[in-house]
Amino acid sequence: MPKPKNFLQLVTANRLNDGLVVFLNESGDWTESIDRAKLVKSKEDAESLLKERSSTGDDAIIEPYLIDVEIVEGTIAPVRYREKLRGLGPTVRTDLGRQSEVARSGLELANV
Amino acid sequence: MYRYDEFDAAFVRSRVAQFRDQVERRVKGELTEEKFRPLRLMNGLYLQLHAYMLRVAVPYGTMNSRQLRQLAFIADKYDKGYGHFTTRQNIQFNWPKLSDVPDILDHLADVEMHAIQTSGNCIRNVTADHWAGVVDGEVEDPRPVSELLRQWSSAHPEFTFLPRKFKIAVAGAEKDRAAIAFHDIGIKIRRNEQGDPGYEILVGGGMGRTPIVGVTVREWLPKGEILGYIEAIMRVYNLHGRRDNKYKARIKILVLELGKEEFTRQVEEEYARMGETSVQVDPAEIERIENYFVPPHYEQLNDADPVLAAAENDNAGFAPWVAQNVAKHREPGYGIVNVSLKPTGGIPGDATSDQMRVVADLAENFSFDELRVTHEQNLVLPHVKKSDLFEVWKSLVAAGLATANLGLVSDIICCPGLDYCSLATARSIPVAQDISNHFSELERQHEIGELKIKISGCINACGHHHAGHIGILGLEKRGEEFYQVTLGGSGDENAQVGEIIGPGFSRTEVIGAVDTIVDTYVSLRNENETFLEAYRRVGPKPFKEAVYATH
Q1: Which CATH superfamily is domain B413-550 in?
Q2: Among residues B247, B177, B233, B240, which one has the least CA distance to residue B202?
Q3: Is B6-110's fold the same as B306-398's?
Q4: What is the CATH number of domain B134-291?
Q5: 3-state secondary structure at position B52
Q6: Exposed, middle or buried: residue B144 (CB in 10 Å: 0-12, 13-18, 19+)?
Q7: What secondary structure letter does DSSP report for B295?
Q8: Does the residue A79 lie in any domain?
Q9: Does some domain include residue A66?
Q10: For B416, which residue in chain A has the nearest alpha carbon?
Q11: Is the pLDDT of residue A59 over 80?
């Protein structure tokens, strides 16, 4: 997989009740929008953030982990292709997943 | 088909109640995800790339109209209005909410269905020839022994925590339509020299990162000994199978490491040791199960049907569909209708809830209320009168289900790949769609003839690429999707693992490579020679030369 130029990560997970993809934001809540995710700029901060979230007994989400991201034209974009797809929905059914909600709301997709 | 008795019904209901309680405790935080995960997997609930996925068992691929309508109802009420039929003859729903799953399972139990043994390191849903009971040349219907194995293996305490998942497939004819040689255990119903039906037992087949064709450990086993002998195999595996390394935990690795002779010796030794303690199947129980699979009351008909002949003459699209998608039935005047879930440019194996209801109605009205799911991700109406074929075809056309491509280049097996699967390394569905669109002219497909393309989105090979005449494996290389191509694989009675032809192709190159391979075959084939026959005659060289000269 490609190495990002600068270290930049965020915490992602799936929501317990519906399994949908979520991201940890600055307030410590989970959001479906990657644009609102909290970014960490060092490996130590990233690991600390993940450890902190994993140990809180947070039952709202499952399987939290860190992903590499980069800023592209002012917005947050995952580095790995897998994570780009995961944040959007199936490319063969663009009427489903986060991509369809974004399209319906008229918002622009974040470089994915 | 099999009907639940009171024990089946009570067991499935109790599992639903148990899982409902487990979900409630998980949501309240009384169960951690670590503790809950194996419990949800035991009930077929995975976490995939975008959401949960519920895999529902269709034992040996047989269903009735009521069951298919219930799946359509579930798709509409709890999912996104569609389902995906899999290479294990199951169906998957891609968007269920955790809190809805107990209700979904209750709805399934209402129609004698469940999601048990569709995940985890247990004996999985037993699969079988999708033309069971209706095809010419069958020794016996493979479904009764499949049902026997289902009942025996369900929640079997000794085989609930195996080293790894365990898959069994059964074929009832010389022609293998169940890919038995690529299963942990393959069972082939055959006669011995005296003409008595029994079972040939193959062990150690599989796909994944170590593709292996299974080996025969018993040429012929008396029918009544099937459970005892399978139990002996399972015990050898349970004892010696690798639990320290997930990638070496399947029985195929044990058979490979021990060798066929030593593995067989250990199985026979265990079987002999079990002696009278081994499970002998009561003939009355076999008869009870077989009675569920007696043929329906067919009409006495002439095989040539004037209504069919007239319709074929009068409707341009009908005759090619009959020729390609309707197989010979063993009863005169009937046909086996294969409903393609591979429309041009479509997602292989996907069916909308409306399409499910159409097929359910057709099964009820024209096929003795029975249908099948195939491991090639199509559906089957197994007993349709030839005089009804035109009516059935018209309904299928209206529902977008009448593509006349069974066994042709666009009848592609394809796993969900990175569009849905959390394990995938590349997308597979868009590649299948590209190929389907590229060869969209049915006339061209018919000229090419039988050609099985199988696509997987990762090394786990759920799309059976190792067994594809042309196999395509999607991988990730430096952040990009790329595709490895294999040739010469086969999942039939002459099973073979495909050979990698050379360096992989980018997402945009792979369709060109497939096109070149097909063109090469067409240019070198002898009269009436299929792709696989031609490949076996000439080997990979001309294909490699053509592909890498142009790409």
Answers
A1: Sulfite Reductase Hemoprotein, domain 1 (3.30.413.10)
A2: B233
A3: yes
A4: 3.30.413.10
A5: strand
A6: buried
A7: P
A8: yes
A9: yes
A10: A90
A11: no
CB atoms within 10 A of CB B72: 23
Q: How far apart are CA B233 and CA B227, in angstroms?
A: 10
Question: Does the beta carbon of A41 lie under 8 angstroms from any beta carbon of chain B?
Answer: no
Residue B121: half-sphere exposure toward Cβ, Cα within 13 Å: 16
Residue A4 included in any domain: no
Chain length of chain A: 112
Q: How far is CA A24 from CA A11, A21, A43, in A?
A: 6, 10, 16
Minimum-distance CB partner of A63 among B29, B47, B425 = B47
The DSSP output letter for B526 is P
User: What class does CATH assign to B306-398?
Assistant: alpha beta
The DSSP secondary structure of B139-201, one letter per residue, reads: SS-SHHHHHHHHHHHTT-GGGSS-SS-B-EEEE-BSS-SS-GGGSSEEEEEEE-TT--EEEEE
DSSP per-residue string spanning B355-377: HHHHHHHHHHHHSTT-EEE-TTS
Amino acid at A41: K
Residue in the block written with tokens 């399987």: A63
> For A81, which of B50, B98, B479 is closest by C-beta distance?
B479
Whether the per-residue pLDDT at A109 is higher than 60: the answer is: no
Helix (H, G, I), strand (E, B) or coil at A88: helix
Work out how many domains chain A is built from and give that number.
Answer: 1
Chain B CB contacts of A99 under 8 Å are none
DSSP per-residue string spanning B296-310: P------SS-HHHHH
What SS3 state is found at B421?
coil
Cα–chain center distance at B252: 19
Q: Domain limits of chain B?
A: 6-110, 134-291, 306-398, 413-550
Asked whether residue A14 is assigned to any structural domain, the reply reads yes
Look at the block and give the residue holding tokens 């010419």.
Answer: B136
Name the packing angle between helices B429-438 and B510-524 (round to 10°): 50
A90 contacts B26? CB cut-off 8 A: no
- Residue A107: is its pLDDT beyond 60? no
pLDDT band at B199 (very low <50, low <70, confident <90, very high): very high
Domain B6-110 sits in CATH at 3.90.480.20
Chain A residues within an 8 Å CB radius of B433 = 92
- In 3-state terms, what secondary structure has residue B500? strand
- Per the structure, the complete domain to which residue A96 belongs is given by 9-105
ipTM value of the model?
0.92
Q: Collapsing DSSP states into helix, strand and coil, what is residue B347?
A: coil
Tens digit of pLDDT for each residue in B443-500?
Answer: 999 999 999 999 999 999 999 999 999 999 999 998 889 999 999 999 999 999 999 9
Single-letter amino acid, residue B445: Q
